Amino acid sequence: MADLVSKGLTTCEGCGMELIARSILDVLGQNTIMLTPPSCSAILTGFGSETGWKVPAFQSNLENIAAYCSGISVALEHQNKTDINVVALAGDGGTVDIGLQALSGAVERGHKFIYVCYDNEAYMNTGIQRSGSTPVGAWTTTTPGGKKEPKKNIVEMLLAQGIPYVATASVGYIDDFKKKVAKAREIDGPAYIHTFSPCPPGWRAKPRDTIKIAKLAVDTNLFPLFEAIDGEVRVTRKVRKVASIKEYLELQGRFRNIRDEEVESLATDAENYYNKLLESEAK
What we know:
Low-confidence stretches: none
Number of strands: 8
Structural class: alpha/beta
Order of helices and strands: HEHEHEHHEHEHEHHEEHH
CATH architecture: 3-Layer(aba) Sandwich
């Protein structure tokens, strides 16, 4: 299959978002319309007449990418074009915070589109400010002493709203991500994939450790991999031996000043949530 994202783009070294973008089109192919908001993913969409996509692409405003997806989806429906994938690729700031109202509205209306959030746990494109997705204890420029509030769980919010397909994924397990993109394509309605995407500059991590960090997030149960079809939960990667949260945190300078009690809280919350998912799966 031809590479549908140009080579030599100016994303940062070790960028997880670029791997996600390439993987989306590896699965969906040429019949795809990509939408990005002002964000790191806008680097792919480009400026003026230049773009890194080899498929039709559009840049929305930060707060309304899901609304644009709705409009494009309806237009394609009226033209009886049922074989074109409408895909949003947005960061956590434009998804769990600023874009939440548009996403919730599009899901409520039931429009057919795929929304992929690359979660790098802060507003990286504008200077590493905290987002609702920033975890406890993480340094950002707006939380210099470490964030105090827990990470917002948008997947559970969308599950509660009744979205027909929702999943988590990680660049550390890219085959799992691709399988979920393929499933999302077959859903007759909105589909959402929340994807863990390390940001070496923002996380004060080494670019060569992107995949290692992304795997450890899953294997520590901090970011469990699962999917839910019509509310039916299935854990897609069972963790047999829980990895060390300490090792995960030490690979990232943003956690340099995290307190022991915060580490314990992260570990406890991760274990409880993973067990909750297993219980949901067993029902």
